[in-house]
From TrEMBL:
Source organism superkingdom: Bacteria
Domain THIF-type NAD/FAD binding fold: 32-227
UniProt name for this protein: Sulfur carrier protein ThiS adenylyltransferase
Organism: Anaerobium acetethylicum
This protein's UniProt keywords: Nucleotidyltransferase, Transferase
GO molecular function: nucleotidyltransferase activity; tRNA threonylcarbamoyladenosine dehydratase; ubiquitin-like modifier activating enzyme activity
Keyword Transferase: yes
SUPFAM superfamilies hit by this protein: Activating enzymes of the ubiquitin-like proteins
InterPro entries from the UniProt entry: ThiF/MoeB/HesA, ThiF_fam2, ThiF_NAD_FAD-bd, Ubiquitin-activating_enz
Gene3D superfamilies, per the entry: NAD(P)-binding Rossmann-like Domain (3.40.50.720)
Keyword Chloroplast among record annotations: no
Length: 228
């Protein structure tokens, strides 16, 4: 009798762990958004430059939104200082951010197409790295690197949209973080002011709000909404 109960419990656990089929995922997303919207999102391809507080959270939000392909680019490894605001866990310490984040995203949607590049992005290679992506979310820490990526992509790829982040440090009002359209293919999310410093470090709340603005703008662009 005890053996039978153990077998039944084991079967129940295995059933709970069963990975839903691709068709089941599609059905849920179709019902949640509509077949038309899900079809447009699932055909989207978005690059994410930098997988820190902005980039890792952007990736999670886009994976949950049903984006078909995410291109993750970063050369760094997960360390303890990342855990206060980035989408990593203790078990990821020491691992490449590209692979750690890919594993997390596959737990959200095992049918998501993910491309990873563990490389440092420069003015010389940026265009080639993101050559297949419709939209690129800039998620660097250093202002000079942000400007480099924007200038490299918009200077050589008039067809790509860049969504950048600027100003999300500290614990000030989240309402000051906004999305602005700077020019035809450049959108800027953040308050445009706050930098990380003593007493105004990067904290999860405001970083996540800014990441949400970037992810939401990417979704809107895929759905044909270009204006703010």
């Amino acid at each position: 009798m005890e053996m039978k109960k153990e077998l039944e419990m084991k079967k129940e656990l295995e059933a709970e762990r069963r990975i839903p089929s691709r068709e089941e995922f599609k059905k849920v997303m179709d019902e949640r958004f509509s077949p038309e919207i899900h079809a447009r999102l699932s055909s989207g391809r978005i690059g994410i430059a930098g997988l820190g507080g902005l980039g890792s959270n952007i990736a999670v939000m886009l994976a949950r939104s049903g984006i078909g392909c995410l291109h993750l680019v970063d050369f760094d490894y997960v360390d303890l200082s990342n855990l206060n605001r980035q989408a990593y866990r203790v078990e990821h310490l020491g691992r490449a951010k590209t692979e750690a984040l890919k594993g997390e995203l596959m737990q959200i949607n095992p049918y998501l197409e993910i491309k990873t590049d563990m490389v440092k992005i420069t003015a010389e290679n940026a265009v080639d790295i993101f050559s297949e992506d419709q939209i690129v979310c800039e998620a660097f820490d250093v202002p000079e690197n942000k400007a480099m990526l924007v200038n490299a992509l918009l200077g050589h790829r008039p067809d790509v949209a860049v969504i950048a982040g600027s100003g999300m440090a500290g614990y000030g009002s989240g309402n000051s973080i906004q999305t602005r359209r700077i020019c035809k293919n450049l959108y800027l999310c953040g308050d445009g002011i706050t930098d990380a410093g003593e007493g105004t470090g990067l904290m999860s709340g405001r970083v996540s709000i800014c990441a949400g603005h970037q992810a939401n703008m990417a979704v809107r662009l895929l759905l044909g909404e270009n204006e703010i």
